[in-house]
Amino acid sequence: MEEVKLHQHIEKVHPEEHSRILKSGGNGAGNPLPPNSTHQHPTPPKTLPSPTQSHTGTPVAHTCSQCGKSFKSKSLLTIHERTHTGERPYHCSLCGNSFKCKSHLMVHQRVHTGERPYHCSQCGKSFSQSSCLKSHQQTHTGESPFQCSQCGKSFTTAAYLRIHTRIHTGERPYHCSQCEKKFSHSNSLTVHQQIHKVERPYHCLKCGKTFRSPTHLVHHQRTHTGERPYHCSQCGKSFNRSSSLTVHQRIHTGEHPYQCSQCGKSFKHSSSLRKHQRIHTGERPYHCPTCGKSFTSTTHLNNHQRIHTGERPFHCSTCGKSFKQSSSLTVHQRIHTGERPYHCDQCGKSFKQSSSLRTHQQIHTGERPYHCPTCSKSFSHWNAFNSHQQIHTEDYLFHCFQCGKSFSKSNAFNEHQQNCTEECPPLSS
Residue 264's closest CA among 250, 248, 280? Predict the structure, then answer.
């Protein structure tokens, strides 16, 4: 019986190997074929239909009752159904992240182990998943074989194309079982389902905010106490969460463990990768209830909503200045502390913002990424490019009311005004 099963398996799953065995006079179990058999017309053993086949021999479709999708096996259907239910039964013991299937957990664990078993033969770059390697290899060939028939946009994977086409079709296959709301992306459904998880028994005595777990409450309370128990051994910076320290340390190590399979870009944080991937898919799941504008992340939505509310919740304890975004406050505070955490490895110059460092590095590289479409002149700074364009448009924004002269730059206008009252007579009427 075992021999029969093995023979069936090889014939079905490995047809090339089955053909080779027949030619060499074997039956797939290491034994010669029965004497009455021929190489050309082997008689298959009589068997009952497999669980994936009907009595007529046609495959049995395992269909999803939510979206109608069909699968070859019950196990594949079970995994798919978790996209609708939000169930993630496989948990990472190191960071608590959970997954729909065991294989996803195994791939995720490579983030912690650093294992990247798939190597590019062209450039030596290594990846944690074979799919990431395949997509990366297309950056060498320039291949994007999956093209949208509606808008012509092309993608490196069929999965990205499928997600993208939902923009055109309006398809929303992921349904919330609680409120019947529909979504075009499974992760949008996962985000939405948090709304229904109303049980938050842990209360902050300071501000009344509620949380699902005591761990989340403890993390929150540190925003009131200022406690930052996790310290970076490299630079001494401290954090209120161990996960924040882990992400910060990647600044020093240069580690970017989360990789985009579409373009090969890598990120320090998994959430940064998820946000980035929305550039490729066009997904903007967060909507402003006031004006309807949509955003790729809750952070961008919250920042936008402050335009409507006028809220500036981030206050400088030194000078009292307030800001709409915490990142703006962080940069501002460096005026008081003198901190300049971004260093140029070429000349040692340091900067308050990473964007300032990037702009500075163009001095060393000679890079001039801003090109004038009118005269082809190029610039290393956006401000210089912007000022230059006013030469072509004659867009002189600053006008002297004493003498009628106009200027494109505020500093030239201010300098002129200091002398104009003494040297320039008023315009005659």
Answer: 280
The phi and psi torsions of 92 (rounded to 5 degrees) equal -80, 125
Say what the pTM is: 0.34
Extended beta strands in 149-305, E state: 154-155, 174-175, 182-183, 202-203, 210-211, 230-231, 238-239, 258-259, 266-267, 286-287, 294-295
Largest CA distance in the chain: 119
d(CA 354, CA 260): 22
> What own/partner pairs with CB < 8 Å and gap ≥ 24 does 327-335 have?
none
408 against 284, higher pLDDT: 284
| Contacts of the segment 174-178: beta carbons below 8 A, 24+ positions apart | 174/67, 174/83, 174/84, 175/66, 175/67, 175/84, 177/84, 177/85
Query: What's the rounded Cα separation, in Å, for the pair 389 and 379?
Result: 11
Q: Is the pLDDT of residue 401 over 70?
A: no
CA distance 241 to 223: 11
Q: Strand pairing partners for 323?
A: 314
Distance, CA of 302 to CA of 299 (rounded, Å): 5
**Which of 370, 404, 374 has the alpha carbon at shortest distance from 386?**
370
Q: Are strands 90-91 and 370-371 parallel, antiparallel or unpaired?
A: unpaired
Tokens (6 digits) for 362? 């163009």
Query: Cβ-count burial of 197 within 10 angstroms (0-12 exposed, 13-18 middle, 19+ buried)?
Result: exposed
Distances from the Cα of 334 to the Cαs of 144, 327, 339, 353, 357, in angstroms? 44, 11, 5, 9, 15
Per-residue pLDDT tens digits for 205-237: 888 888 877 888 888 888 888 888 889 988 988
Please enumerate in sequence order all residues whose Cβ is within 8 A of that of 184, keeping only pairs 6 or more positions apart, or say none: 163, 166, 167, 171, 172, 173, 174, 283
Containing 165, the helix (H) or strand (E) segment is helix 158-169
